[in-house]
Amino acid sequence: LWQVERVTDRAWEDWAAARPESSLLHLDSAAVGRSSRATLEAVAAHARLEAEIGGYVAQEQVRDRLDAARADVAGLLGSDADGVAFLESASAAFDALLDAWPLTPGDRVGVAASEWGPNLETFAHRGLVPVPLPVDAAGGLDLEALEQVLVSDPPALVHVDLVAAQRGLVQPGAEVVALARTHGVPVWLDAAQAVGHVAVPRGAAAVYATSRKWLTGPRGVGMLAVAPEHRDALRLRRLAKHADLPDVQHLESDEAHVAGRVGLGMAVREHLALVPERVHERLGDVGRLVRDSVAPLPGWEVVRPEAPAGSTTALVPTAGQDVGRVRERLLAEHRVLTSVCLPWRAPLEMGVRGPGEAFLRLSPHVDLTEESVERVCRALTSV
Ligand SMILES: Cc1ncc(COP(=O)(O)O)c(C=O)c1O
After folding, report:
1. 79 near 225, Cβ under 8 Å?
2. Residues 6 or more apart from 271 whose CB is under 8 A from it?
3. Residue 313, strand partner residues
4. 86, 193, 257, 339, best to mutate for ligand 1 pocket (most atoms within 8 Å of CB)
5. Which of 140, 164, 166, 260 is the most buried (most CB within 10 A)?
6. How far apart are CA 168 and CA 311, in angstroms?
7. Taking a C-beta distance cutoff of 8 angstroms, is the pair 336, 25 a contact?
């Protein structure tokens, strides 16, 4: 019924073996990835150290590891360590950036239709006006048409959700950054679904992301990078007790999940050891394998299979299935973990088939096996 290629490789088996065993088939990295035992142990060990020697002393003791984590994250986000702030989530990083950036209510922000819904809500809450940028048939930003906009009616900034949560669409981030730079328009990248999944382009004005998804770091840690040429203009609340901190780090919470940052440092080291380009390539292969395998299944249609995408696949039911119920049955009867995407995730491009439109999202990590794909296909035909 379906064609499954063999894409197993020792490194990816090791990736799975490095994590706690699970009876579930996890296809939900776009929500929360599975941390390695080393990452979990790093978090737990730091929490224990805090109880043993005191939280602030413990923090001093791991100073080198925190500095290394910051430098590694800077590398992933295309920045330098001084330009990186650790926050509590991608949304918290986005909020901190909005607090600090010299924007004025009424300013227009260019977005693609695939933009993450809560970002649109946050812009509106701050009196900023999201304006749709031209996209092609697959939903990717149309570079030629974008250039026209940047010349004739430039927004205050361009905001690119690099990998869309609801269907894995990968935007041409590098090209948009290059184009917007030429026209003097800053670009912010939402890399929440991108870091650890696809390459994050260099040269953006700001990039923010989260630890817990594709990097498989702990929950409760997010990160932000601001390019050097924009740091002087940031509106910062500088606490006297932290007078010596680099500018961007004034955006960090004074009290923080330090154990989570230590854990993120471990997760990033593991990611770097696998070589990010190999991980990106592998996740692309995994996504293609899933899409090719589920495409012929009765009752389901892959959402925009022609669009550039990484691992994440979205399916719409064609036989009237209730996607929420399907997700529950996949979990309860088949032990397969997936997500439901409702239109709030991307209101500019979802909901067109009706207000109840929902996608079933499959977002496996590098350890997907051909047996797993067969299991998903069997499960999807029986729910
Ligand atoms: C594209 C995108 N942006 C932002 C976020 C928000 O990230 P966080 O939950 O870490 O605040 C998410 C989370 O799913 C996301 O998918």
Report:
1. yes
2. 76, 196, 215, 216, 279
3. 362
4. 193
5. 164
6. 7
7. yes
Query: And the tokens for 339?
Result: 């997500």
What's the one-letter identity of residue 18? A
How many whole angstroms from 211 Cα to the centroid of ligand 1? 10
Is 193 near ligand 1, meaning CB less than 6 Å away? yes
Q: Report which DSSP code applies to 114.
A: T
> CA 267 from chain center: how many Å?
15
The C-alpha atoms of residue 352 and residue 166 are separated, in whole angstroms, by: 14
Q: Are 65 and 230 in contact (CB under 8 A)?
A: no
| Separation between Cα atoms, residue 255 and residue 260, nearest integer Å | 12
Give per-residue pLDDT as tens, 180-218.
999 999 999 999 999 999 999 999 999 999 999 999 999
Among 169, 200, 210, residue to substitute to test ligand 1 (most atoms within 8 Å of Cβ): 210
10 Å CB burial of residue 45 (0-12, 13-18, 19+) is middle
Mean pLDDT of 355-381: 95
**Quick one: which atom of ligand 1 is closest to the CA of 89?**
10
Question: In angstroms, what is the span from residue 224 Cα to ligand 1's centroid?
Answer: 13
CA dist., res. 10 & res. 379, Å (int): 27
In degrees, rounded to 5, the angle at the alpha carbon of residue 313 between the alpha carbons of residues 311 and 314 is 155
pLDDT tens by residue, 218-249: 999 999 999 999 999 999 999 999 999 999 99
**One-letter amino acid for residue 207 of the chain:** V
Distance 243 CA to ligand 1 centre (A): 31
212 Cα nearest atom in ligand 1: 10
225 C-alpha to ligand 1 centroid (Å): 16
How is residue 98 written in tokens?
């909005």
DSSP string, 257-268: -HHHHHHHHHHH
Q: Which of 367, 257, 376, 370 is nearest to 315 (CA)?
A: 376
For 72, 74, 190, 192, 211, the CA distances from 272, given in Å and listed in that order, are 8, 12, 21, 18, 14
Q: Which atom of ligand 1 is nearest to the CA of 210?
A: 10
